[in-house]
Amino acid sequence: MLLKDKTVIITGASRGIGRAIAVECARQSGKVIIGHSGSESSKQHVASLIQAIEQAGSRAVDVGADAADPDTGDKLVKAAVEAFGSVDVFVNNAGICPFHAFLNMPREVYYKTVDTNLNGAYFAVQAAANQMKEQGRGGSIIAVSSISALVGGAMQTHYTPTKAGLLSLMQSCAIALGPYGIRCNAVLPGTIETDINKDDLADQAKRDYMIKRTPLGRLGEPDDLAGPVVFLASDMAKYVTGASLLVDGGMFVNLQ
């Protein structure tokens, strides 16, 4: 029970990686705040997620609010304190990646991506960190960055800078928040099968190429991120801060 007596906020938790992290946190006795967009679709996913969390023996509260809104972090923190009395872990997972070419990138697509993936994350991390500082017993902040923070992508010129920004944010926050016992780390997923890349991976040639690039011989699944995040959230990682953990099946080190 690695997260016993801990309250965990997870953004973008209704589906994919965020959902897998939420369920594993519940299995480890963490109480979960489910951040989601608030759309009708996300509400349907949240209902089944809350059921799964309760079946795991824990409790959850959901907050529907746009990750791009700088006030969303305050809403998540308020809900956590009101429901469970604290914020012990904050997982910034929410993100979008509308693939698009660089030369004719619509400004609205660029701004929406940056606001969702980085700007909103900045203020949400700030809100969580202020609550952790006030509590006076440290905490753990984890950003779900991407292998894309380290490599380029022709159709991701708006996306890769945001993931590099999240990685850099965790490195700087590790220094800024270390005096308060708040640890800040990033996980960098490789190619994980989620809704965000479903259309891209529908191209069988692209799919086969990505599998071939991965030494472990398969694409990632959302559950593959859950264990690393729980580790970083737990006291087992009490001396780990400013770290970046690749969870990519070995793709980054494979130059083939």
TrEMBL record:
Its EC number is 1.1.1.378. It comes from the Bacteria. Belongs to the short-chain dehydrogenases/reductases (SDR) family. It comes from Pseudomonas duriflava. Keywords: NADP, Oxidoreductase, Rhamnose metabolism. This is L-rhamnose 1-dehydrogenase (NAD(P)(+)). GO terms for biological process: fatty acid biosynthetic process; rhamnose catabolic process. It catalyses: L-rhamnofuranose + NADP(+) = L-rhamnono-1,4-lactone + NADPH + H(+); L-rhamnofuranose + NAD(+) = L-rhamnono-1,4-lactone + NADH + H(+). InterPro entries: NAD(P)-bd_dom_sf, SDR_fam. GO terms for molecular function: oxidoreductase activity, acting on the CH-OH group of donors, NAD or NADP as acceptor; quinone binding. Pathway: Carbohydrate degradation; L-rhamnose degradation.
